[in-house]
Amino acid sequence: MKQSALVILISLLIAAVLLASGCTGVQQSETPPTPTPTETIVPATTTAPATPAVTPSHTEDEMVAFVKEAVAFANEEGKAAALAEFSDPNGSFTRGDLYIYAYDFNGTTIAHPINPEMIGVNRLDEADVSGDLYIKELRDVALNGSGFVYFHYVDPAQNMTVRPKLGYVEKVDETWWLGSGIYGVEEAGRD
């Protein structure tokens, strides 16, 4: 009986020491969190949206170079190897929110690392939130070689939020084209 009372007493003393030293298992931050450099604090009294401002993580030049790199890869490695690489979310052509997508000229998705469920789906008549037939627009630009198109699409770096996107596309050959896009760029001022 004395032994069990001693064990209980020691356990209570250890618990008291832990509680007195602040070891309750709940940590509290001493400083408030600071916003990241891409966030903007909006006062509650304004009518501005409460979403953080996001700056582009890649430039137009980087995007164009990325697409040209992918076209060169497709020409060197062949269509099958290229499509497998472009569809791999962990592949060399998926770099955060910058990734390669590919379509045939009928509008069917043939590679997409972010939305693999779209592979094999004809999206030519798919409209974005503005009502633009963006796949058709991208395809039409690719038919002429290469170029830019503005549209709206989900941003994997922003919890799949639909955001304005600048796409750049380039024809690989007479049967298919590929492209990429960057978020956080403004359409205004672009020819």
From TrEMBL:
Q: Which UniProt keywords apply?
A: Cell membrane, Kinase, Membrane, Transferase, Transmembrane, Transmembrane helix
Q: Name one GO molecular function term.
A: kinase activity
Q: Where is it located?
A: Cell membrane
Where is this protein chiefly located?
Answer: membrane
Q: Which domain of life is it from?
A: Archaea
Could you tell me the membrane topology recorded for this protein?
Answer: Multi-pass membrane protein
Q: Name one Pfam family in it.
A: sCache_2
UniProt domain Single Cache: residue ranges: 60-136
Q: Which residues form a coiled coil?
A: none
Per the record, its GO cellular-component terms are: plasma membrane
Q: What is this protein called?
A: Histidine kinase
Which species is this record about?
Methanofollis formosanus
